[in-house]
Amino acid sequence: MVALSRNVANKHAMEMLLTGDMTSADRAAEIGLVNRSVAAENVTSEVMALARKIASKSVMTLATGKSAFYAQREMSLEAAYAYASQVMVDNMLARDAEEGIDAFIQKRDPIWQDA
After folding, report:
1. Using one digit for the tens of pLDDT, what is the confidence trace for 16-54?
2. For the residues of 33-101, what is the DSSP string, one character each?
């Protein structure tokens, strides 16, 4: 109940909790319980594609984003916006932000410095 109610809309969580019905993978994706549903034979290739995509990003930027995501969830809305704004400013001043913008403009893969 605790994890479910923090990951899907209240009406979906309540229906699942009160009925006890099984939920299909497609329905779980539809209501946001999982990110996506894939055929069993494609699980490994889909997971590896997602892992490669994440691994291609700046480690510093990923760590900053992950930390900020969890921190802001515990704040009031006003405090969360102020905090997120400061994190975005700090992130844009990082070397990897400059590299990411340059790489995009030059239509090339970025070379991350993790700084």
Report:
1. 999 999 999 999 999 999 999 999 999 999 999 999 999
2. SSS----GGGHHHHHHHHHHHHHTS-HHHHHHHHHHHHHHHTS-HHHHHHHHHHHHHHHHTSHHHHHHH
Cα 33 from Cα 9, distance rounded (Å): 9
Q: Where in the chain is the domain with CATH 1.10.12.10?
A: 57-105
Contact 26, 37 (CB under 8 A): yes
Measure the CA–CA gap between 36 and 24, rounded to whole angstroms: 12
CATH architecture for residues 57-105? Orthogonal Bundle (1.10)
Does the pTM of the predicted model rise above 0.90? no
